[in-house]
């Protein structure tokens, strides 16, 4: 299987090369030449473990890795560091299934891919005889940063540098990152939002003079954001697994369609669901849920992507994004692999802050259904779900649930539905505690304890003791100064 750029350059890579490079030279994202079919029949998937499905899915895409190499990656990633024995529990609450993707070390779904990416990366470095140190640059809206730090800490021959929006993440998220230990970790707050961080990082990737400068230091840049294909492909596995679990529970029969709801920011997680569908998982609608930064809702409903709008800081900060990177991959697939067309759309986005896709791509978008939830609706959904079913959702998952309710009300569609549950409620304890009727304090850690006392839901191990841990990273940068920070970090 070869990988090519969404922006049409002829150059192809194998998976290992694409994982190391992170982003294509022409600024596009790597996509597989074709999406493989599931390597097993639907009737044979019922008894499979998470590790078996992850292996089969990743193996279908990353054909240049040997079976032994991938087995080692999968076994190293999906082990006891997950607090759920089956890695991804599926919990029914009310009339819907929650696919709990947050039982890894950092209590968000980013662990699903970022616990395996370091293995895929170091294996790739060996395979490709890469002799440079790999410097992972990461822009984060709150959860990717910590998951990437946790994954790459003290991995030999790597450095990890994270940029997060100052005042744009929750207290727990910030403390998780600023207390990170490890010799090769660097964390910076920037005066700006996630889009500024992501744009700044992409600019560094595309700076060939800087790449040369780093090469002289024996370094090479890569990415741990979902622009890296090594992030996206492992995420496909849990949607395949979700279908196996529903079969096992007897909730569906073989071949029955399911709907999947994904609270969306950078469009990575929902794109993984689209890949699962393309591989042969029977999916009806892919339901895209946004918060007030509803650029994707508008896009899916009109075919016009327009970032000329206000940016909101919400209580689902990991979705406070206006420039959704991975949408570029979907557009590429919907255009019939027309790289020139995608390059033109992305140029329009850069120059005019908007683009409109053609009619055939608009037609392709009808596989998706999109809506959004504002903060009041999100909080109300958390309260309602807890009162009626005793189930605790985080703010992002609640955005998904509210949009699911809208979808049901509007369409009457009764298809069995899975909501991607993307984070532990404790990461956003202030909002969640208030939503279930608790009096909240200024200090988020007090709210974590109150939430636990009230609900009895276990606090993830990774969040315990954060409050008293030493803060090791304090620097705040202007958004123009990212390159200088990288230079300094590598000295
Ligand atoms: C990253 C994140 C999202 C958004 O995922 P995308 O892949 O960027 O669409 C949603 N919820 C949580 C908790 C996240 O950390």
Commentary on this structure:
The protein is α/β, with parallel strands linked by helices and 491 residues long. It has a domain at 90-107 and 233-462: Rossmann fold. Helices cover 43% and strands 16% of the residues. The strands form four sheets. The protein has a six-stranded mixed beta sheet with strand order 4-5-15-10-11-14, sandwiched between helices. The mean pLDDT is 96. Pyridoxal-5'-phosphate is lined by residues 108, 110, 143, 226, 263-269, 318-319, 396, 422-423.
Number of helices: 20
Biggest sheet, spatial arrangement of strands: 4-5-15-10-11-14
What helical percentage do the residues reach? 40-55%
Query: What would you call the shape?
Result: globular
Short description:
The chain has 491 residues and is an alpha/beta fold. The protein has helices at 15-21, 50-61, 67-77, 110-114, 117-127, 143-152, 171-178, 194-205, 208-216, 229-249, 268-279, 295-302, 327-334, 339-352, 359-364, 375-389, 395-411, 429-435, 444-455, 482-489, and strands at residues 3-5, 12-13, 30-32, 90-93, 96-100, 133-139, 158-165, 185-191, 219-223, 258-263, 283-290, 304-306, 354-356, 368-372, 417-421, 476-478.
List keywords for this structure.
491 residues; alpha/beta; Rossmann fold; 6-stranded mixed β-sheet; 5-stranded parallel β-sheet; binds pyridoxal-5'-phosphate
What's the topology here?
Elements: E1 3-5, E2 12-13, H1 15-21, E3 30-32, H2 50-61, H3 67-77, E4 90-93, E5 96-100, H4 110-114, H5 117-127, E6 133-139, H6 143-152, E7 158-165, H7 171-178, E8 185-191, H8 194-205, H9 208-216, E9 219-223, H10 229-249, E10 258-263, H11 268-279, E11 283-290, H12 295-302, E12 304-306, H13 327-334, H14 339-352, E13 354-356, H15 359-364, E14 368-372, H16 375-389, H17 395-411, E15 417-421, H18 429-435, H19 444-455, E16 476-478, H20 482-489
Parallel strand pairs: 5-15, 6-7, 6-9, 7-8, 8-16, 10-11, 10-15, 11-14
Antiparallel strand pairs: 1-2, 1-3, 4-5, 12-13
Helix pairs in contact: 1-5, 2-3, 2-10, 3-5, 10-11, 16-17, 16-18, 18-19
